Amino acid sequence: MALFRIARYEEQEKSSSAEDQAQVLLRRLRVQAQERQLKKQKQQEAEAETSSPGDVAPGPPGPAQTSLSSPAPEEPKRKAKKRKRGDGSPRRLEKSESETDPMSSQKGTSSPRKPKRKKKKKTGKSCEEQGDKKDSTRACEPSAEASEPQHSVLILGVPDKKALPKVQPFLPKWLAEPSQVQKSVKNDLVPIQDIPGIHPCLQKKLKTNGIMSYFPVQAAVIPALLESASHGFLVGRGGYQPSDICVSAPTGSGKTLSFVIPVIQVLSERVVCHIRALVVLPTKELAQQVSKVFNIYADGTALRIAQITGQKSLAKEQEILVQKTDSGYCSLADIVVATPGRLVDHIDQTPGFSLRQLRFLIIDEADRMIDSMHQSWLPRVVKAVFQGDSAPGSSPLFQRVEPRAITAASTSQPQMPLQKLLFSATLTRNPEKLQELGLYQPRLFSTGPDSQGSVAQPGTEQDGEGKYAFPAGLSHFYVPCTLNSKPLAILHLVRNMKFSRVLCFTNSREVSHRLFLLVKAFGGVPVAEFSSRFGPGQRKMILKQFEQGKIQLLISTDATARGIDVKGVKLVLNYDAPQYIRTYVHRVGRTARAGNTGLAFTLLLRVQEQKFLQMLREARAPELGKHVIRSEHLKSLVPQYEEALSELQKTIRNEWKQKKA
Ligand SMILES: Nc1ncnc2c1ncn2[C@@H]1O[C@H](COP(=O)(O)OP(=O)(O)OP(=O)(O)O)[C@@H](O)[C@H]1O
């Protein structure tokens, strides 16, 4: 057995990767203890030497002494060892080793009187033969260390393979401790008359539209908004400025009415028409839907609603926004519902379009709108709101300054606050992203499954925040499929379940188009497609027909995944699995709305299964069932399907020719 081992770099690398962390730690401790013992021993030796110069030098250092980090003391030690071996009396070291070994037991300790070589041999044998663990730990230790001395060696640059603990970003209090909103839109209803401050006419209108009681999110948000506007359009006493409000509640939980009702209530007291509420949404269809709701509840008041989405020409939209009079421009709209691009067009190009009296800025589908911040529509809006007094349309009565520290001077003049209201079923909890909105002392209302701690990992799509609440009435399943059987599975589900309105999502407009052509060629199912292939007018018509039940199966891209509220959609099919949890939440959220039940099926290829199921587990989605379609159920469809396939080929060829021509 070699007493001196040279730790080779490769050996160290191998062993360190194979060794358990605990063992490495243990060895380090042992080495430290040995070093301490050795020091002590040296001292004793020195003392002994001074008393009797003919005595032996201390024995060789333990294997740990071959450390790369402490090469200097190596040489004198070696000399000492040589001397010791020469006279064959390393007893003192033997003893010290057994004493310093933290794993050693008193049982079976070799007699210090026996010569070292003999004793080592003996102990080695006995541990092999007897297999006694305790003894072998102690007695075999030196040889084990001699063969593996590397663990005391510090290798620089070797990557640590330990999985790093997940860093949990620190959340601001308003995000970590939101105002909890009840979840059940069936059980946690609040009678309309129980929320004060809503005009009787508005209450009556709610009832005529089938709203007999408020959903939980409405019961929480409406009073908060009314309270924040209790000083009318101005800031409160002492410069009190209302908090911005963020709402995170499941799809179909009634978020739209939770801002429509208080905004109409507050604005109905206005005297002069100015743009006082601006709703920004990501798509034209959503803007249409929301302005329809505003129109319903503003009916009978003096309030006027304008929609600016690019559906009409800029000039036509300008006509409904501003009017030129002898004394200058005056606004024709109190509430503007807009898409971001068109809004910026009007800020830039419409004379007299003023946001200087804007009181509410409502950002619906807020997480999606944050994604579109690169269009920098928000800074443009804020700039338009807080323009200097010299700007046209400015009123000497009010001073508009961005929120800042309150001073006696700042409160001396009446001010109008701008309150931002954010709504989404998948509101981000990523403080970095939310920061882009410049919120003022925000307050969060949330129904999230675990509002605490579902925190964003910046830079990831799921943001780690991806724990969203799903509608209670939703049952969702995945369907294992092969690539070839996917269209057949869709046909089987649609025909079998016989629902009058089915929404089917794909990941691209090309796939939507082909699937549409295939189902159409197959026959028997009234089908349409919805994507950016069509203009806004056509899309509006398709949605209307779907609402009316004239279309049974609407094959769509994610253009209809968010916010679209079509009553009676009982089934959602994901022909293509969505890539992100947010997309999944919104897609399946087209069903099971307003406390109703709904079904969702996602077709998954075998290669997609694991990742998709993992994504849902991480989102803490309700349990996803497995729905297997047996091949005999599809067999009967095959002959007709093959005919449809050849028809599809012809159609696509013709389309190509037409395109080329
Ligand atoms: N209090 C209520 N009682 C009955 N039905 C309601 C009530 N509030 C809203 N609804 C209905 O619930 C449906 C969903 O409402 P809404 O579109 O506002 O949901 P949402 O939370 O905005 O959903 P999404 O996140 O998908 O946009 C609508 O058809 C609406 O008319």
From TrEMBL:
Matching Pfam families: DEAD, Helicase_C
Domain Helicase ATP-binding: 236-445
Domain Helicase C-terminal stretches: 489-645
Basic residues biased stretches: 113-124
CDD domains in UniProt: DEADc_DDX51 (cd17956), SF2_C_DEAD (cd18787)
Domain writeup: The Q motif is unique to and characteristic of the DEAD box family of RNA helicases and controls ATP binding and hydrolysis.
Stated family: Belongs to the DEAD box helicase family. DDX51/DBP6 subfamily.
Name recorded for this polypeptide: ATP-dependent RNA helicase
Record organism: Phascolarctos cinereus (Koala)
Gene: DDX51
